[in-house]
Design brief:
The chain has one domain: Orthogonal Bundle (Cytochrome p450), CATH 1.10.630. Helix content is 50%, strand content 11%. The protein contains 21 helices and 12 strands. The chain has a 5-stranded mixed β-sheet. The chain has a 3-stranded antiparallel β-sheet with strand order 4-12-9. The protein is globular, with a radius of gyration of 22 Å. The model has no long low-confidence stretch (mean pLDDT 89).
């Protein structure tokens, strides 16, 4: 589909704008071209990349049979990070197999056994807070979510390997989220190993060090063969596909790294937004606190995660600042039709979460933070899709929501915080997500409130 909805600026400029100022770029495009527009992205050899935000168009995208789409070519920039066995890169039957192996660890009663650990980790990270403590909420949330991934997902106990992994991963993740560093993955010409001093050479060596630690953990866990363990790595190691096959060590490594990269900065970023939004809307904070204070057992994770207003606050935050700006891009193999428009082979289709969540037709006063939207109305999975959707939706969506509510409730129940200033906070790109510029600086005004 070509014509007035295709940007005419140079492809390189479009790419740089999308990398450095994604929300502004998307909003400008939507304002000028509407629900559907076409851009050109360098690094994908400039095929047309079509963004959709209309619910029907998103529904049509999700309904396209997997056989008609190529996900690998559209997501190849992630391969050096995730690994070729990652569920993000897998197609059709291979993707279905990975999904069937992974899903049980993130749903139903399985995630309930992680509740106490999430609360304990949050309490441990905040244990030294006292009256007057200055806090960078985003940095704090990054610490908490990384420790949750190491202990709950990887199942690594605090110790030497835990500290090595934490140090190595936080260093790499910090760099990967920077626009200049992430450009390495978009432009293949930059992927040259000229030794440890070169950017790509440094990345390859850091990845190798991290892989060594992960494989050591996998090998040790296989040798121990402890059936009592409940961490996600242990569950994945015991999982069998329909042919009775286990995941290989390489598959386990690639899934763990994918879960880390997709679940670390994203959840930390949304939590930073939650703290900013509720503390800049006193009426919202008061209602959250009333709900928390009314709990019969305020330390029960299951009771916390069932609270309707707390849930609505997290949902509304994810509407305004979703985990990712877009769903998994998908390249057309054979001609497909979206809302009556035909798209030919080579076109990349991108359901745009960020713009779908800001359509005035779906969300009146879309820029306003109003959690009651989710108490008064139920939105379709094509109108509200903070974790993507269809058969490529995020497998960790339930876990992420569970984690967000427990971290938020644990801190609010024990501390009173205030924003360090009332200046406007703007979104800035960090990896695949957007975070508050400045990290949300807060001050502890009351500590260790007795429950």
């Amino acid at each position: 589909m070509k014509g007035s909805n295709e940007l005419r600026t140079p492809a390189l400029l479009q790419t740089l704008q999308l990398i450095t100022q994604p929300t502004q770029f998307l909003e400008n495009c939507a304002a000028k071209y509407g629900d559907t527009f076409t851009v050109r992205v360098m690094g994908l050899k400039s095929p047309p990349v079509v963004f959709f935000s209309h619910p029907q168009a998103i529904s049509d995208c999700f309904a396209v049979p997997a056989q008609k789409l190529d996900f690998q070519k559209a997501t190849h920039v992630f391969k050096p990070l995730f690994g070729e066995n990652s569920i993000v890169l897998k197609e059709t039957r291979s993707h279905h197999r990975q999904r069937q192996l992974l899903l049980p660890a993130f749903h139903g009663d399985r995630i309930k056994c992680y509740g106490q650990s999430i609360c304990q980790i949050t309490e441990r990270v905040t244990q030294d807070w006292k009256l007057g403590t200055a806090v960078s909420i985003h940095n704090l949330m990054s610490d908490i979510t990384l420790e949750i991934i190491l202990e709950v997902v990887f199942g690594v106990s605090p110790g030497v390997r835990y500290q090595q992994l934490k140090t190595q991963l936080s260093s790499l993740l910090e760099d990967v989220t920077k626009p200049w560093y992430s450009s390495l993955f978009f432009f293949s010409i930059l992927q040259q190993d000229f030794g440890a001093w070169s950017p790509w050479g440094s990345f390859l060596r850091r990845r190798q060090q991290i892989d060594k630690l992960i494989y050591a953990e996998i090998h040790e866990r296989r040798w121990q063969n402890d059936a009592e363990r409940t961490d996600i790595l242990s569950l994945l190691m015991s999982a069998r596909d329909e042919n009775g096959q286990q995941m290989t060590d390489q598959e386990l490594r690639d899934q763990l790294v994918s879960l880390l990269l997709l679940g670390y900065e994203t959840t930390a970023g949304v939590l930073a937004w939650v703290f900013h939004l509720i503390h800049s809307h006193p009426e919202v904070k008061n209602q959250v606190m009333q709900e928390l204070n009314a709990l019969d057992n305020p330390t029960n994770p299951e009771a916390i995660t069932q609270l309707p207003y707390l849930t609505a606050v997290c949902q509304e935050t994810l509407r305004i600042y979703p985990i990712a700006l877009i769903c998994t891009p998908r390249m057309v193999k054979d001609m497909v039709e979206i809302m009556g428009n035909k798209f030919t082979s080579g076109t990349i289709l991108v359901p745009c979460i960020y713009l779908a969540h800001r359509r005035a037709e779906t969300y009146p006063e879309a820029n306003q933070f109003r959690p009651e939207r989710f108490l008064n109305q139920k939105f379709s999975p094509h109108e509200y899709l903070p974790f993507g959707g269809g058969y490529r939706g995020c497998i960790g969506a339930v876990f992420s929501m569970y984690e967000m509510k427990l971290v938020l409730a644990t801190i609010l129940s024990q501390f009173q915080l205030t924003l360090a200033d009332n200046l406007p906070v703007h979104p800035v790109r960090r990896g695949i997500t957007i975070v508050p510029r400045g990290g949300v600086q807060m001050i502890v005004t009351q500590a260790k409130i007795k429950r």
